[in-house]
Each structure stands twice: as structure tokens, then as C-alpha cells.
Write a structure and sequence with these properties.
The protein has twelve helices and 13 strands. By secondary structure, the protein is α+β, with helices and mostly antiparallel strands. Strands 10-11-1-12-3-6-13 form a seven-stranded mixed sheet, with helices on one face. Strands 5-4-7-2-8-9 form a six-stranded mixed sheet, with no helix packed on it. α6 crosses α7 and α10 crosses α11.
């Protein structure tokens, strides 16, 4: 498995929030949807992306940006423009005073804005649930990523622009997959830059010892790995592998394996009808109880809660 395959296997949009925003100055929209990640692609005109923390960026035609959540940000025609609309969780839209705007700014299928002939057009794709994008991917990206048109070229952008306004059977699935592919293209372009600040695990893939260990863990996560067996496969001592792995990756081999197993389990729970027991054994756990315990400990929710996208109420304790 190459250095990016494991990372890029994570994006799995499920009913993503997608729209074409068409605006004519003056305009400013506040985004407080708490989404883990949003992709912003400028197709016409210009727009500022203004995060609550960090430097703003100006998007021009062909530029793309990724905004990491759950922090809020503002998009506007000018840096100093005060917001007149607010986007909340699930794509709800209203004024800052709470008055609904969904109907008055509706411009057609997945199109929204203050003027159907507006000079500024932006495609927005939002992953709405945390489990749809791997934590390892989110941690590898800055809070606001910006790629100018001249440093990246994605043939899928015209496809997304064309498909986003279609209203056909299965269209949401088509858009989800296109959004995943565009995100992957953006991330690949980002890490390919000469000045890219690649994460530790990415750089570690180039190490002859740790890189081999990472590939073994990723290619066969169900194997009953120990640090000793992994070290034997890599031709080094147990202590030597543990020390070098931690130095380059930033965590012990078994911690990395746990995270990888749970990431695979999360995808299987969302994308297949396999039971928790079957998923557990496929990714290297002895059974559903072991997987549930690890899932709850690391992710804070149960496998069932992850599968349904809901948080179940806590069970009441039985009286003595």
C-alpha cells in the first residue's frame, strides 16, 4: 500500500450537503454548521474565506479551499462585510436574527443565493458527520487549506458543476462519490507541493524499516500482530522497531494498528450489512464485545451509533 492509499481510502460521503452558491455583491454568509470538513470550489468571480482563527484567503476562479470543522468561518465579497445570512447544522439557513431564508434564496435544485445571475459562483460540498472523513486525514490538514488554480488541475470539477444541479434517481450517491474523488485530488495536490508540511506517518513511509512495518499493518490488519512479530518481519529488534516507529510516526506500533483497525471497521459498518461480530473478526478483533469496547474507548461512541449516525441515550442504571 503506498503512502497515501490508507489515508485517501477514508473519505466516504453519505448524503453530503452540496450546493451551488450564486451571489451578487454586497454579500456575506456566516457558516456555523459544525461540519468536520467542507470543500469550497470557486467557478466564477471572487470570494473571501475568513476563518475565526488564522489568515483569510481570496478564492478566484479555479481555486479550491478546504475548511476544517467544527470551527466557524465566513464567506464574503469583502473582508469587512458583515454577515446577513447564517448557515447552521444540516444546511439550515436564516438571518442572524433567526428569520428563515431557505425559500427566499432558493434558486433551483441545489442552488442558493441572492441573485440567479450573480457574478460570484461557488460549489460547496460538506461532509456532515465526523466518521465520513478519517481522523488521520483531518489531522494532516491545516484548518484552512487553499490551492490556487495554477497549482492544481482537476478534470472532475466541470463534472461536479454539471451534476450538482441535476435531479435524477440516485443523484445523491453520484454526487457523494464525485465529492470524494475531488477531495482526494485536492489532498494529493496539497501533499505534492515542494513546501508541503507532510505529517509524520507520511514521511515515515519512506523509511526502509518503519515504512515496511506500516505496510504490513495496513495490508493485513487482522493478523495477530505483536511488536515482536512485526520486528521479526522487518528484520530488526523489538526495541529497535518500537523506538524508531515512535520517533517517526509519533505513536507506538500497536496504537497505530488500533487506529487503523477501527478506521476499517468504521467503513465496513457504514458501507456493508455485516454484523458487528463479522466486522470485528475481519479487522482483527476476537468478537463484537472486543470491537465495541475499543470503539467506545477510542471514538467515544458504539459501533451501532456510528453505523446509524446517531448517539443512543445512556441506559438507566438498574436500581439495587
Amino acid at each position: 500500500m503506498d503512502a497515501l492509499a490508507g489515508l485517501l481510502d477514508g473519505p466516504r460521503a453519505r448524503g453530503a450537503f452540496l450546493l451551488r452558491m450564486v451571489m451578487e455583491p454586497p454579500w456575506s454568509v456566516r457558516i456555523e454548521d459544525h461540519a468536520p470538513l467542507s470543500l469550497l470550489c470557486m467557478t466564477a468571480g471572487e470570494a473571501w474565506i475568513i476563518p475565526d482563527t488564522g489568515d483569510p484567503v481570496l478564492l478566484r476562479p479555479g481555486d479550491v479551499a478546504i475548511a476544517r470543522g467544527p470551527d466557524a468561518y465566513t464567506t464574503a465579497d469583502q473582508l469587512t462585510r458583515e454577515p446577513t445570512a447564517l448557515i447552521g447544522p444540516g444546511g439550515t439557513c436564516h438571518t442572524l436574527q433567526g428569520e428563515p431564508l431557505a425559500q427566499s434564496m432558493h434558486l433551483g435544485v441545489r442552488s442558493w443565493g441572492n441573485d440567479p445571475e450573480g457574478s460570484a459562483t461557488m460549489l460547496v460540498g460538506t461532509y456532515q458527520m465526523k466518521g465520513e472523513v478519517s481522523g488521520r486525514l483531518l489531522d494532516a490538514l491545516p484548518m484552512l487549506l487553499h490551492l490556487p488554480a495554477e497549482v492544481w488541475n482537476c478534470p472532475l470539477m466541470p463534472v461536479l458543476d454539471d451534476e450538482i444541479s441535476r435531479d435524477e434517481p440516485g443523484q445523491s450517491v453520484v454526487l457523494d462519490r464525485i465529492l470524494d474523488l475531488v477531495l482526494i485530488a485536492v489532498v494529493r495536490s496539497w501533499f505534492s507541493r515542494p513546501d508541503a508540511e507532510a505529517p509524520a506517518w507520511y514521511l515515515a513511509m519512506g523509511d526502509p524499516v518503519v515504512g515496511r512495518a506500516l505496510r504490513l499493518l495496513q495490508d493485513d490488519p487482522a493478523h495477530p500482530w505483536t511488536v515482536a512479530s512485526l520486528a521479526a518481519k522487518c528484520g530488526v529488534s523489538r526495541a529497535g522497531l518500537a523506538r524508531r516507529f515512535h520517533e517517526l510516526v509519533g505513536e507506538p506500533p500497536m496504537a497505530y494498528l488500533t487506529d487503523w483497525r477501527l478506521a476499517l471497521a468504521a467503513d465496513l459498518l457504514r458501507e456493508t450489512d455485516a454484523t458487528v461480530e463479522a466486522v470485528a473478526r475481519k479487522v482483527g478483533y476476537s468478537g463484537s464485545f472486543a470491537l465495541s469496547a475499543a470503539f467506545k474507548r477510542v471514538r467515544g461512541i458504539s459501533p451501532l451509533e456510528h453505523r446509524t449516525g446517531t448517539v443512543l441515550p445512556e441506559r438507566k442504571q438498574r436500581s439495587p
